[in-house]
Design goal:
2 domains, single chain, Lysozyme-like, globular, 7-stranded mixed sheet, alpha+beta, 477 residues
């Protein structure tokens, strides 16, 4: 199905607010989309935070303290850098696969201690816009590893080692070549925005043991807060239009959309399937987590509906507190746009380890915004990323509960039962060719649509629990 692209700020706001929730927006014929921001470093101070890009070169094995580094290894020797909190490695060709290992170690700005070597997930092309779409064919795109949250750091060392040579058909060894243009990206998320919703959540931090004690369906909400705090402050044009598309749920510039009871949710969603809509959960807005609207491409892209939700993990590691979640999200956003060359953050929503839900890609939390989260299945779906890495570690119960609460509401707006399957058409990927009609769970894991480890085995195993809980929230028999 064809996506509609609204590029002019005024047209986007007017059209979005004029249509009932859940209906696609018509294309705006006024102004063409502005050029996308280039995937380059920016540290001129014109926007909060910064991205610094440092080229990797062939390692001097005598100086790298890496006896296993072969002659083809690349990296960056230990060095002092300006403060950063998230790190990733990118390269020129988005279609090129990095066959090898990527590792970093960083120095804490607080303790001055160096971390052990940490692996970056280097098979990250399973995320992204669908092939053939304007975003998927943009010249700004870069290949990349998943980013890793390391906290406030001021030193870095990188090593990239190719896999061992593969044996060719004639019995000779075929060397593995690393992609061209390898460089490390050091992302500083910038200071927390004053009056942001994160200020209201700092008392929510608790350790993973307490999270695991909570049973799914009994997730803990944040402390009582004024959902309009921060509303009315001076907004840029870009901030205004992003906030306006949520205008029927929150005041202009509000840091959060407040939760509603099931009855109030049904009353506020005329024209949608009843009574199977879950209660609207509390959602931290882009304003609340401090998204710089000047980074992304202007305008929004919509599809026609939301038929399924794909659950992901961000693969950024679990070493963050819930008070840092907004900083993690700003860093991922900056990495997706500045380093990888996407039009906006790829996920439609994010969830932290304490169960807080965040608005992701701009365009309205209730609307069918097209994301860049599941290569081949970004049409008529929504993407939800749980912040963390869940290949082995147990995902916090609060996060699983938040997945259920969010999908009960979002899928309920479009009349979808979280327990059933639906038919989606592949936009192209390594599991299903373009045009293939595929039966998938209404709540699926990323690996269901693409051959990937995401969302990690531990989180994937919890999706059955999330489906049942979401149906309960919707009030389904």
């Amino acid at each position: 199905m064809r996506a509609s692209h609204v590029s002019a700020i005024g047209a986007a706001a007017a059209a979005a607010l004029a249509l009932p929730l859940g209906l696609p927006l018509p294309s705006a014929a006024s102004a063409p989309a502005a050029p996308r921001p280039a995937a380059v470093a920016d540290d001129d101070g014109t926007v909060p935070g910064s991205t610094r890009s440092l080229p990797l070169t062939r390692l001097d094995t005598a100086r790298s303290a890496d006896p296993d580094a072969g002659p083809a290894a690349q990296g960056l020797l230990r060095r002092d850098v300006e403060p950063f909190s998230l790190v990733g490695v990118v390269w020129d060709d988005p279609a090129a696969e990095l066959r090898g290992t990527v590792q970093v170690r960083t120095r804490s700005a607080a303790t001055r201690e160096w971390s052990p070597w940490q692996d970056l997930e280097n098979h990250h092309h399973d995320h992204g816009a669908d092939p053939g779409t304007p975003e998927g064919t943009s010249t700004t795109l870069r290949g990349s590893t998943a980013p890793l949250w390391v906290g406030a750091s001021d030193g870095v060392e990188v090593r990239v080692r190719p896999d061992k040579p593969a044996q060719a058909a004639d019995g000779t060894d075929a060397p593995v070549t690393l992609p061209r243009g390898l460089r490390v990206e050091l992302v500083d998320p910038g200071d927390e925005p004053p009056g942001g919703a994160q200020d209201q959540d700092r008392d929510q931090d608790r350790d993973d043991d307490r999270d695991r004690d909570e049973s799914p369906g009994q997730g803990r909400e944040g402390p009582p807060a004024d959902p309009d705090r921060g509303a009315g402050a001076a907004l840029s044009d870009e901030e205004s239009v992003v906030s306006e598309v949520n205008g029927d749920m929150a005041a202009l510039g509000a840091p959060e959309i407040r939760e509603l009871s099931k009855a109030d949710t049904e009353a506020s969603a005329p024209g949608h399937a009843k009574p199977y809509i879950g209660p609207r959960p509390r959602i931290v807005t882009r304003k609340g987590w401090g998204a710089d609207e000047g980074l992304r491409e202007p305008g929004f892209v919509y599809t026609k509906s939301v038929q399924a939700a794909f659950v992901h993990h961000s693969a950024t590691g679990n070493n963050y507190t819930c008070a840092q979640a907004s900083s993690v999200l700003r860093s991922i956003y900056r990495y997706h746009v500045r380093s990888m060359g996407w039009r906006d953050i790829g996920y439609n929503f994010a969830i932290d380890k304490c169960g807080n839900i965040y608005e992701g890609r701009a365009g309205g939390v209730a609307r069918p915004v097209q994301g860049a989260h599941t290569l081949g299945f970004n049409t008529n779906t929504t993407g939800i990323a749980v912040l963390g890495s869940f290949g082995t570690g147990t995902p916090p119960a609060a996060a699983v509960t938040a997945v259920a609460r969010l999908t009960a509401w979002k899928l309920g707006l479009y009349g979808k039962d979280p327990r059933v399957r639906t038919t989606l058409t592949s936009g192209g990927g390594n599991l299903y060719k373009k045009g293939t009609k595929v039966q998938l769970n209404v709540i699926s894991g990323h690996r269901d649509g693409y051959n990937t480890e995401c969302p990690g085995t531990s989180l994937y195993s919890k999706l059955g629990t999330a489906r049942s809980a979401a149906a309960d929230y919707q009030g389904r028999p």
